[in-house]
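Give me the fold.
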Amino acid sequence: MAGVPLGRSLGDGELDVEGICAEAGMACQNCTHAVTCVPLPYGYLKVPLQVCSNGQTCNAHKGGCSEKAVPECQPATQKHKHSCEQVGIFPDAFDCRKFHLCSPAEGLPDGRPADHRAALCPRHYGYNPQYAQCSIRLLNGQCSDKPVPDCKSVGETGPLPKSPNHYYVCLLKRGTLHPQVFICPHGWYFWDGFCRPEPQETVSTDEKVTTENAKIDNGFVAETTTVKPTTSKIEGFFSTEKAATYAADTFLADRFDLSNYETTDDVVPQNDYANSFESGTDFW
């Protein structure tokens, strides 16, 4: 939806009906356009500030156009396409606002690729994969970090920083190294290279206190000792008994309500959300 012109008396400003402004000052309307947000009695006036050029993008953390792009405006983010290798809900590897829903293809036999739908959290909020909610308030309305660390080598793997139930594997596709996000079965936790039924634990409180007191008595600084479960890798990776404890459709993405989200569904979106990060459309 485009802005509402207010007339020459207020210059080139428009009412911020898209929710770009969260406070007074500079904000990014998309990856190439910066605006100034002026408080009104109700809402904000959005005044054009700068159009980024020469390879620069709008970076609200830097206060304007910058050679350092925020994650959602980096070239790798624009080229990345999530592949549905599992059924479930997955964060995007590059854009903190974006998440992917992979549902079983209805009427098709097992083994076929899952149906893919992509959605965006409302402005100023990032997707929290641990709770499947858009509950992360974004500083300056833009991502500060990528949801998945940059890949350095093929086969590299690890848990996601914001969700121990998800993990990534660095794959080489079409000559490009990129992370593929997976989810552990039935809410298990990924650590030490495998999905396990319990989170990575530390020693008990009583044992920790005893150990720390002993070190203090001997003149050493107290430390926390990490103890890993003795479950074997094969046993820790999967258990047929665990499936009976959890509902079979715990992570089915086709039950996720998308009524309040912008979705792409792997098709060219309509121009209902012009002037957003996703469109890059000029607004004047």
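Residues 205-217 form the longest helix (13 residues).
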